[in-house]
Amino acid sequence: TSPHDDAVVLVTGGASGMGAATARHLSAHGARVVVVDLDARRAEDVARSLSGPALGIGADVSVPEDTERYLAAAVEEFGSLDRVFLNAGIGGATPLLEETVERFDAIVAVNLRGVFLGLRGSLRLMREQGKGGAIVVTTSTAALAGSELAAYSAAKHGAWALVRTAAIEGAPFGVRVNAIAPGSIDTPMMRALEGVLGGGEAAARALHATTPLGKAQDRYGTGEEVARLVGFLLGDDAGWITGVTVPVDGGVLTA
Ligand code: NAD
User: What CDD domains does this protein's entry cite (predicted)?
Assistant: First the structure.
């Protein structure tokens, strides 16, 4: 047996980056996977590319009605929802002094309100199902340390606070809730940041060098390296782990 045999797992932001890598990883380990993304077409493409049963859904995680719809669609298709990876997010590399109200609100809507809606909806559903469950939220090293990404860091700190609250509220009905804090993972979001720094190999090397393992190996972390951590935290091997953040950051928080 595999650690996710027949489990129904939903992944938001599943059409790209570490969400898509995690959808592939979980599918390869036996899960039935629901891929949710703002980009419906790419969500369906990823779902179709998986080896096992899968469903792709277009939804905006910051919208309450969309949240209800993606949760209901998972249950309708597969009969239950066992594990959830709340991973959708948008980047934002603006310092506080330069930040606009519009961009602040847009980043908070996806990265914080989206997590609130996903956690509340998943917990309500899992309480109703009465068979426990597990949830992982993607925060960031910017949820744990100061950074020059004002709105992004604020939203991710808030998401981390919600994870701790949800872990306490979920415990009585057997739901574990944890966070992962990635740093410098090779995804389209990271490549966009490279572009802000001028792009090309020089920008990539400069970004690699901000991370101990990245500097040593001249690379970012991979989506698969994130996926293996998410798979562990969502699975029963992590049965006594709840309310924590696990960094997957090549050592950047310790440097
Ligand atoms: P990505 O841009 O490749 O993937 C993010 C996905 O989320 C995209 O497919 C996008 O369409 C989707 N999305 C955006 N807004 C959405 C919305 N409102 N509703 C539904 N889906 C939406 O980026 P990634 O690097 O794989 O990012 C995944 C998560 O990891 C994000 O929460 C991000 O903040 C976080 N993160 C990334 C890094 C990194 O180094 N790449 C580091 C720390 C944290």
Answer: SDR_c
